[in-house]
Amino acid sequence: MLKPPEHQVAGHQARDGRLGPLVDGSGLFYKPLQSDDRGANELAFYTSFSSEPRIPTRIRSFFPGFHGTQLLRASDGSGLHPHLILDDLFAGLRLPSVIDLKIGSRTWFPSAPEDYFRKCLAKDRKSTSALLGFRISGLQVNDEDCKWRPSHDEVRRFNAKDVCRILRRFVSSDPASECEPNCAFASAVYGGAEGVLAQLLELKAWFEEQTLFHFYSASILVSYDNDDSEDGRRPNRARVRLVDFAHVLDGNGVIDHNFLGGLCSLIKFISNILKDPDDISNLNAL
Amino acid sequence: MLKPPEHQVAGHQARDGRLGPLVDGSGLFYKPLQSDDRGANELAFYTSFSSEPRIPTRIRSFFPGFHGTQLLRASDGSGLHPHLILDDLFAGLRLPSVIDLKIGSRTWFPSAPEDYFRKCLAKDRKSTSALLGFRISGLQVNDEDCKWRPSHDEVRRFNAKDVCRILRRFVSSDPASECEPNCAFASAVYGGAEGVLAQLLELKAWFEEQTLFHFYSASILVSYDNDDSEDGRRPNRARVRLVDFAHVLDGNGVIDHNFLGGLCSLIKFISNILKDPDDISNLNAL
Questions:
Q1: What one-character-per-residue DSSP string does chain A give?
Q2: pTM for the complete prediction?
């Protein structure tokens, strides 16, 4: 039985008769190929990436597994539609908290058609992309007692200060509170050898070297599970994944300086929170 | 006696009755304060940078020393004009080779006025800035026998392939030749503990951390001296310096991801040349 994924925080959703991704509940995520060139581009990326021998195994694990395509009944009732078959990144998680961060100070690529370029540029300047090198595209924070999930309109209006506060709120035990976030889970989620920061630094090292792909408009999905085990709530399985590859270009021997710059900016925000979870001087500077 | 500097490769030049910088021949460089806000901004930057205690000493050495301002007879004959007093970066060099690299995939800053934004954006897209994260603003290569110095118009038309080739030609013993550059001085200039790459990596480490300044439209000036000593030509004193601070903004707690991204891209180009001076596959990919 295919159904809309519970923990999707950005992008088109398969609800109310619209076209969107589906999950099978046992580990697979079906993403409908987007119209115009985007669907074909994303399929081309997954195909090329899967068979690219120069991708280190550790780096490959940051990407959803790809299992080909399949014609499926589309969620909007329009009949059969080709879907990418990908790993469901949230399979098996009970209470996942998720944030989707679109990386890069610009989402347009040098050869972009003029109307697409204008649209991206306007969004990059209006959102925090130009200023911070990334923007939040969506999030949910699952607490034992409540779920905080800002609306699409709220997310679109986030300014630099909001982004800084939300990265703290994302690892707080009172996410829905309007008080200063307590960052109770900062070290468990962001810190440690397996934490978010360590994973981002691994990605960074790869982006300093790799000249295979340029990831325009792609996102880093950060998640962890608020597992409610017997000895109390304990956030675990902090994960960093890359998603959304409709605008990946051939790197042509040049590093992806746009993605790398934004990634380094995000790393600095996360490091600041880890260094001193109570220090909000960085937030006040914005 | 003040006179126009011999080794200036980019920017307004004090020749033919125009306003431009002057040198005193004994170590000082006088840069006329630019009109509109740019002069005031550059002076403000130098003043703030000089007294900023959080700048590590090693990093400070990448910037020209600042010695206040002075009213001097302008080179365009317009009478007294305020000049910044800076270190002459080429004092004492006999045959300096110099390249001016404007860093960042965008030269406009988020709060830029609309007309300035449009002008910068057009140049960033037309030049290699958007694609490579930096562009060449000017260069001269001094050989024992000849000097190669492309015109302003030639420099403006450099594409990605040209930039890649010029970074090789810059360290070749036959810079004016149309043949494939021989990279004879690559390891002497770009390599080693005191070489260009090592200096760029030091800068990079600082840019990953520093949130004090955002350097829009600033340049990295790479130079070395083709000293003609008794035991033959031996390039020495490879130097990396930052210049042009008319558009430096307060970092407000965010790293300069735009400069950092471009710097990492430049580092990758230089590393490739060092790894294999004969390998031009990178060049062919462009």
A1: --B--TT--SS--S-TT----EE-SSSEEEEEPPTHHHHHHHHHHHHHHHT-TTS-HHHHTTS--EEEEEEEE-TTSS-EEEEEEEE-TTTT-SSEEEEEEEESS--S-TT--HHHHHHHHHHHHHSSHHHHSEEEEEEEEE-SS-EE---HHHHHT--HHHHHHHHHHTT-S-TT-SSPP--TTHHHHTSSTTSHHHHHHHHHHHHHH--SEEETT-EEEEEEEEEEETTEEEEEEEEEEEE--TTEEE-TT---HHHHHHHHHHHHHHHHHHH-TT--HHHHH-
A2: 0.94
